[in-house]
């Protein structure tokens, strides 16, 4: 607050600050009507996409949905057939140096010289950037300490992927494209890279990532976009996407349950009663009153919202 200024000015200042913090300034990535075909295959079929500055956007979708094609167009690695594309205000197709200096890339399949060492690869990539991170710091950040002098060909699959991630962040870019960054990682490495991605986000970096791991999207993304057959089929926050307020209630049916006021939609399978409802409180109240009145504990009682994975599978069902 700025109490000495007239209300009109402070209001507009506060609005401007709020606007910035809500990312309503010019987006980092803006795509309209993007199309790309490979021969008869329409890989991208009219995609609109916005990535706000400072956010983590996760692009989800089945194999062959067009994720990598879209990301490669945004990186300037592939040309579009049609559509409007702006990345940090640049047209990526021009591959201007000023553009390349501000983006970092982790390709789905990196193509490194097998004889190069970890440190050499990082230094080589860093050289293209005006203010790169220190190579030792990068090696540390991706958990490759002890492997600095190892040749790429001697790394395990997961270690190779860590090196790919290292190359994506080595130049300390503003916008980072991560195409399935944690595929092949062991669970600890995945958690470690989530921390790395979160810390990049808190430094104000913008991140566009693709992933097949719903827990990764749930954990990292401010927003998710689901694409299938080259089109956006849904978008929203990980918590709100495709959820229309339904919850699934379930509990173990007590041995003696004569008179238990189960809602009519309830099904009983293997001694477990369950029902889907938008009003779990109202539907459960008589059940709980019945059980409590008998001094009975309902075993395994849960009220669960569909997970991002449930929602994703439902959304993409008809496209598989
Ligand atoms: N270089 C290429 N030449 C011909 N067809 C291609 C090429 N690259 C991709 N395709 C086709 O374009 C479609 C989209 O592929 P893309 O790699 O963009 O999918 P994706 O969503 O990244 O899939 P995944 O989850 O498997 O990585 C697929 O049908 C694929 O076979
Ligand atoms: Mg891909």
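^ structure tokens above, recovered residues below v
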């Amino acid at each position: 607050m700025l109490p000495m200024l007239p209300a009109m000015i402070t209001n507009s200042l506060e609005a401007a600050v709020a606007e910035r913090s809500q990312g309503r300034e010019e987006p980092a990535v803006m795509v309209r009507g993007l199309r790309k075909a490979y021969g008869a295959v329409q890989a991208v079929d009219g995609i609109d996409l916005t990535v706000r500055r400072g956010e983590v956007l996760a692009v989800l979708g089945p194999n062959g949905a067009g994720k990598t094609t879209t990301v490669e167009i945004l990186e300037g690695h592939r040309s579009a057939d049609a559509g409007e594309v702006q990345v940090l205000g640049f047209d990526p197709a021009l591959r201007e140096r000023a553009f390349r200096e501000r983006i970092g890339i982790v390709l789905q399949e990196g193509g490194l010289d097998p004889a190069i060492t970890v440190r050499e690869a990082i230094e080589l990539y860093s050289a293209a950037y005006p203010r790169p991170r220190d190579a030792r710091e990068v090696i540390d950040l991706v958990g490759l300490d002890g492997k600095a002098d190892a040749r790429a060909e001697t790394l395990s699959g997961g270690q190779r992927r860590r090196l790919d991630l290292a190359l994506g962040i080595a130049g300390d870019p503003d916008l980072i494209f991560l195409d399935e960054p944690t595929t092949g990682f062991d669970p600890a490495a995945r958690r470690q890279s989530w921390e790395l991605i979160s810390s990049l986000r808190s430094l104000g970096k913008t991140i566009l990532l693709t992933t097949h791991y719903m827990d990764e999207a749930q954990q990292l993304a401010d927003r998710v976009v689901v694409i299938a057959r080259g089109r956006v089929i849904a978008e929203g926050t990980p918590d709100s996407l495709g959820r229309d307020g339904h919850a699934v209630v379930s509990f173990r049916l007590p041995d003696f349950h004569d008179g238990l006021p189960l809602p009519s939609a309830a099904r009983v399978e293997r001694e477990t009663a369950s029902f889907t409802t938008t009003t779990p409180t109202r539907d459960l109240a008589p059940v709980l009153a019945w059980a409590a009145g008998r001094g009975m504990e309902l075993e395994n009682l849960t009220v669960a919202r569909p997970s991002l994975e449930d929602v994703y599978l439902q959304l993409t069902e008809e496209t598989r």
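The pocket of magnesium ion (ligand 2) is lined by residues 67-68, 108, 179 (CB under 6 Å).
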